[in-house]
Fold this sequence. Notes:
This protein is α+β, with helices and mostly antiparallel strands. Helices cover 22% and strands 36% of the residues.
Amino acid sequence: TAEEVAKQPMFKEMPEFIRRYYESDRPIELRPVELGRYFGQKIDDGRIHVWIKTAATLPDDPALHMCALAYASDFSLLDAIMARYGRTLFDKRMMPASLDHAMWFHRPFRADEWLLYAQDSPSARGGRGLTRGSIFKPDGTLVASVAQEGSVRERKS
């Protein structure tokens, strides 16, 4: 679970600016699972996982939960492309930008409860990459799917 990830020794050893990013006061809470990425580990297929939820409890209106999840779904998706190269969205040498983003909702869920965002990147080439995401309840129920193409370029010195 997300709480277990935050208790891992490696989470505490992450560079302080990265740990602050994940612990900061923001509308969406994020807890990355594959922490080795922040120490340069490459993940060839970009397969990463992030626990997500809203920081605040939301009213029972399903439309609000869909809007909140749509907003949250864009926070980390390009990180799957970066993982292929052993880099992260925190790498100042890179300029990642979303080019398009599509989302499908499959089943009811609450965005204010932890959801597992499983992501991968089946293709990355020439400064562009495709990412896909599946969002699950903790019991494994698929609630939403996401696809995004991004530009991921190195900054010119």
